[in-house]
Amino acid sequence: MQPTLRKRIALDMDEVMADTLTAWLERCNEAFGTCISKADLHGKKIYDLVGPDRAVAARGFLDHPEFFLDLPLMEGSQAVVQGLHETYEIFVTSAAMDHPNSFPAKYVWLKKHFSFIPDKNIVFCGDKSIIRADFMIDDSVPNLKAFIGQGIVFTAPHNALETAFPRVNGWLDVARFFGS
Amino acid sequence: MQPTLRKRIALDMDEVMADTLTAWLERCNEAFGTCISKADLHGKKIYDLVGPDRAVAARGFLDHPEFFLDLPLMEGSQAVVQGLHETYEIFVTSAAMDHPNSFPAKYVWLKKHFSFIPDKNIVFCGDKSIIRADFMIDDSVPNLKAFIGQGIVFTAPHNALETAFPRVNGWLDVARFFGS
Question: pTM of this prediction?
Fold first, then answer.
C-alpha cells in the first residue's frame, strides 16, 4: 500500500478523550472515605495517595465491566477531534489490555461519543510501539516513549513533572498545536 | 525509543492461529441443513455458498459473545509460535472490531492457548495499516495490502486464488519461511 497522504494522529482514550480520572477518584473517595482531589495528584498517581493497602482495591474499580461505560468526556474533545478528523486520519489507540473486561464498555462509549470515528480506526492494544502513526497524543509518557513518531503529552496530574515531550493542556491546546 | 533489535511478526488470529472456519462451518451447516466443506470454499467465502438470504444469519454466529471461546487451534500453531517467540517479537493483531462482542472471548482464548504471549503484545484492531511490524501473517489479502511491511498470506480456502504475497500453507511452512 502507498502511505496515505493524510497525516495520522493516534489518540489515547483514558485521561485524553475520556475523563477517567474524575470517575476513578469518585470511586476511590467513596470506598475509602478519602477526599483526594485532582490537585492532590500533581506529579503522582492515585496509587501513591491511597497507599499500598488499597492499591489492589483501587485498581479493581477499573476492572469492573461497566466502569468505562459512563465516563465523562474531556472538555472540548468531541469538537476538536471532529475538526481534526476533517484533515487528519484519526485512530483511537487505547491500552485496554490492562483491563480486558473493559473492551465492550470502551467500544460502546466510543460509538456513543465519537460515532464519526469508524470501527476500523479503533485499536485496543498494550505496547504502543505497535502503532504506526505520525502523531500520538497520550497522557502516559511510557506510551509516548514506546511510540515511533511525534509524541505529544496530554496534561494529566500524574505527568505534570514530565518534560520529554511537547505538551498540550487540554483540547483547545490540541487544536492550536495542529493549527485548526 | 530506539527500534527493537529483534524483528517483529504480527500474527492474525482467525484462520491463522485459530481454526475459526471449522467452527463457523459447523454452525452454518447445523443451522441451514447444509453440508458445506472446506473444499467447497476454494476461492470463495461462506457468504458465497450460503447465499444472500442466509448471509446475515451466518455472520450472526460470529457475533455471539462465546463463539470465539472454544475455537480449535490451527495445527502446529502453538509449537511454531513458541519457537518464533524465542527469536522474534510476536504480536497478535486481530481485526476484532468487526465483532465487538468477541473481545473478551478472544482474549480468554489467547491466554489459554498462547499464555507465553504477554498482554501488551495483543492488539484488537480494524484497519491493519495501523500496525508497525516487519512481517504480517494473515489470511486476509486486504489486511496484507493495508500493512506497511512484508505481508505473508496464510492459506485459507477463500484466498486460494490470490497471488500478490508470499504464501505459507500451514504452520510448518511458517517455520520454514523463518528458517526455524
Answer: 0.92
Tell me the pLDDT tens digit for each residue of B119-142: 999 999 999 999 999 999 999 999
In whole angstroms, how far apart are CA B100 and each of A40, A61, A133, B65, B122? Answer: 37, 22, 23, 9, 15
Calculate the alpha carbon distances from A12 to A52, A140, B51 in Å.
Answer: 27, 9, 41
Q: Which residue type occupies A86?
A: E
pLDDT digits (tens, 9 = 90+) for A18-74: 999 999 999 999 999 999 999 999 988 898 899 899 999 999 999 888 899 999 999
Smallest Cβ–Cβ distance between A131 and the set B107, B121, B132 belongs to B132
Please give the ipTM for the structure prediction: 0.92
Residues A120, A38: Cα–Cα separation, whole Å: 34
- Nearest-neighbour CA in chain B from A7: distance (Å): 12
In this complex, which of B121, B132, B145 lies closest to A1 when CB atoms are compared? B145
From A25, A140, A143, A9, select the one nearest A77 (Cα to Cα): A9
**Cα–Cα distance for residue pair A116/A88, rounded to 1 Å:** 13
The residue type at B8: R
| A66 and chain B in contact, CB less than 8 A | no
